[in-house]
Amino acid sequence: MLKMFKSDNTSGIHLKILEAIVNANVEHESAYGSDAITQKAIEKFREILGKDVDVFFVTTGTSANVIALSGALRSYEGVVALDSAHINVDECGALEKFSGNKIIQVHSDDGKIYPDIVKDTLEVLGDEHAVQPRIISISQVTELGTLYEVEEIKELADFAHQNGLYLHLDGARIANAVCALNSSFKEMLTDTGVDLVSFGGTKNGMMIGEAIVVFNDELKGRYHFYRKQAMQLVSKMRFISSQFIAYLDGVWEENAKNANEMGIYFAKELEKFEEIKLRSQVRANMIFAYMPKDLIEVLHDKFGFYITDEKNGLVRLVTSFDTTKEDIDLFIKEIENYYK
Ligand SMILES: Cc1ncc(COP(=O)(O)O)c(C=O)c1O
Q: H-helix or E-strand containing 229?
């Protein structure tokens, strides 16, 4: 059976995660997160992050983003994000519908926000006619498969705070980023000064589960309410939180390492063809490559992947925790056969 490269959520569930769910299925437990398993998972987050963070488990990355962002915004405030950001193009206007807050779009070619790009948007601060920028939202790994260095996140957090803004990080693939940069969750999130994180699990081998992590003391104490209003207070919470206990116990690293290694292997194999050009260096599990359109057609009939930009022949290939070299070799073989 051919594996897909559409996204890392086309994969299944790591067995240790399934085991954790089964183990949580023994006794009756209190509902809505007031159970011992959920408390243990929250403590686990605090341990790895080295900080007394607030943690709220939810079911999707979109809900994590929308709740995290809307909970920190007044009605007249907005989020500065890239035009390519998941919150801007892949969440069906969820933030705009749910809270009515505006996304203030900026652009960069490498999928990363820099202080200089945000500066222009801050000119309206204090102008009652304009939406007030209040949060900068970045994604790590970015939507273009690139990475922020730890130092760059710190610079953005400092810049945000100097201007009275918060920094939110969409970490749907945060484990891949931590592995790729040989860093740690504490170094990348706590020590940089990020205020809010949507901490992903589903894409890296969990069944269902994301967490809103609140670092900024000013923002603590409110998200219990916002999560419930957003219909994300899961009653049998322990089946999400038990996954995170196993996940943070090492599954995250084992899975992300494999996905990244396969991403890098895939990129190296693709680079061997002069007809194919990588959009940027591959360091994690997302590959963006320009390919001739006739080749894309042939590959697309056989393998699942997204054509990001049909006009320019840009495709996105994503490797997962269970991708193997053999899966990639089949893809490469198809290209070799095409050019034979
Ligand atoms: C950067 C990013 N953020 C968030 C999400 C979460 O999406 P979902 O609501 O599908 O779990 C995704 C999933 O594709 C993503 O790539």
A: helix 223-229
pLDDT given for residue 340 in this prediction = 86
Residue nearest to atom 8 of ligand 1 (CA): 61
Q: Is the model's pLDDT at 1 over the cut of 70?
A: no
Is the shortest distance between the CB of 137 and ligand 1 below 6 Å? no
* 205 close to ligand 1 (CB < 6 Angstrom): no
Cα(163) to centroid(ligand 1), Å: 28
Distance 67 CA to ligand 1 centre (A): 14
Average pLDDT over residues 202-208: 98
Architecture label for domain 254-339? Alpha-Beta Complex (3.90)
Query: 313 alpha carbon to ligand 1 midpoint, in Å?
Result: 23
Scored b (16 or more CB within 10 A) or e, 241-266 reads: bbbbbbbbeebbebbbebbbebbbbb
| Beta carbon of 10 within 6 Å of any ligand 1 atom | no
Q: Do the two domains 14-250 and 254-339 of this chain adopt the same fold? A: no
Contacts of 14 (CB under 8 A, 6+ apart): 205, 206, 246, 251, 254, 255, 321
Measure 87 CA to ligand 1 centroid, in angstroms: 8
Q: Where are the domains of the chain?
A: 14-250, 254-339
Pocket lining: 35 vs ligand 1, CB cutoff 6 Å: no
SS3 label, residue 138: strand
Provide DSSP, 92-136: TTHHHHHT-PEEEEE--TTS---HHHHHGGGGGTT-TTSPEEEEE
Please name the CATH architecture into which domain 14-250 falls. 3-Layer(aba) Sandwich (3.40)
- pTM score, two decimals? 0.98
Ligand 1 pocket mutation, candidates 10, 62, 92, criterion most atoms within 8 A of CB: 62
